[in-house]
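Q&A FORM
Asked by: J.P.
Topic: structure of histidine kinase

PROVIDED:
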Amino acid sequence: MTTTGEAHTEVPPPRAGPWWWGRVRSAVLDVSLGVASTVECGFEGVRFARDAGIPDAAGVVFGVLAGSVLVLRRRWPIAVVLVSIAVMPAQMGFLMGIVGLYTLAASELPRRIIASLAGMWFVGALIVTFVWVRQDVARGSLTVGDWVIPFASISTALGVTAPPLLLGLYVGARRRLMESLRERADSLERELQLLAERAEERAEWARNEERTRIAREMHDVVAHRVSLMVVHSAALQAVARKDPDKAVRNAALVGDMGRQALTELREMLGVLRSGGERAADRPQEAAVPLAAVGAAAAAAADRERDGRDEGAADGPCLSDLDALIGQSAAAGMAVDLSVEGESRSYAPAIEQTAFRVVQEALTNVHKHAAGAKTYVRLAHRVSEIAMQVENEPPPELSSASSARLPSGGNGLVGMKERVVALGGVFVSGPTDAGGFRVSAVIPA
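REPLIED BY: S.T.
REPLY: Here is the structure written out as tokens.
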């Protein structure tokens, strides 16, 4: 199979026949016609020799040489027709002329050349027939009226010119049509192969995008909840003996967060499982062509990339930021939220992405700067929404610092992928004061 990066080169089929013949059958046919034409011209050469007053052997040799030219009809059809016109006054070469005229009309030569040679053949046949009929009438072998001579001449000339010419034109046009259809079929097959390869590539790309999206969702859902649970468990260890009431509250918070994390995980797994069940309930769809599958998968990925997924409406939104910050505050983080501009509703994908950016940024603070004061800024602008999460340097000693939260380095990558997929800008990095800042701007 030819890949998309390779050029398609047409390789001519190997010839099975000798010399200029494409097939052995064609060579046998032309040689048989040449033998028949040679025999005809050889016998007619005897009469020509006697009429011209030359030896019979010379007439036979002349006829044999002239008749054998028919073997070259596929290679040089013009030469065959010209030779037949040249020997026509010697009353020989009619088979060669008829077959040559048919071959000429069926060839790929320009129409003006075919028309010119056919006209020459018609005029030659008309003149020769006219002379023959007048000679027969003069010798008394025919007794007819004067009108019969031109009528017989025209009829005979048309009879030996029109049928082979029309048949050759029809066969040539049909051959060109078949070749055109064959070329179009080959071209269509190549295009289908390219479409199948591209669809396969797009389907693989869509699968990779879907895996990345699922991994990002799982990370966003689990990482924040589990991080808060770990922070609360560390605080619970620190105050278990000193303040039992606070330990009880922290234990209740850990339980609540664990249940929330399990609920969100069940929802995501339920969506994935329901998708698999729908695919299993429709086994006949496995017969859909690969190009359609790839196009559907790519279209789904495009919808996800453009933020038009219907499932986005079921995710978190900006109105949930207060609850998110409250959870972080309950874990002992000092969080300051400020909102600029007039609050308004956005597309579900935009609100979910903005929420996830703030959520992941707070999770990173829990992991790497526990106890540091954090500032969350949200700005509603005319054509965009901007968010920034910045934390101060962490204190030297923190009750939650012993939590030892692991980090896979996927949080910032996931945030950037989300924002860039919506056409936004994402920037993150340390501040001059020793803290860390996450900024994102998403077109509205």
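FOLLOW-UP: Residues 24-192 form one domain.
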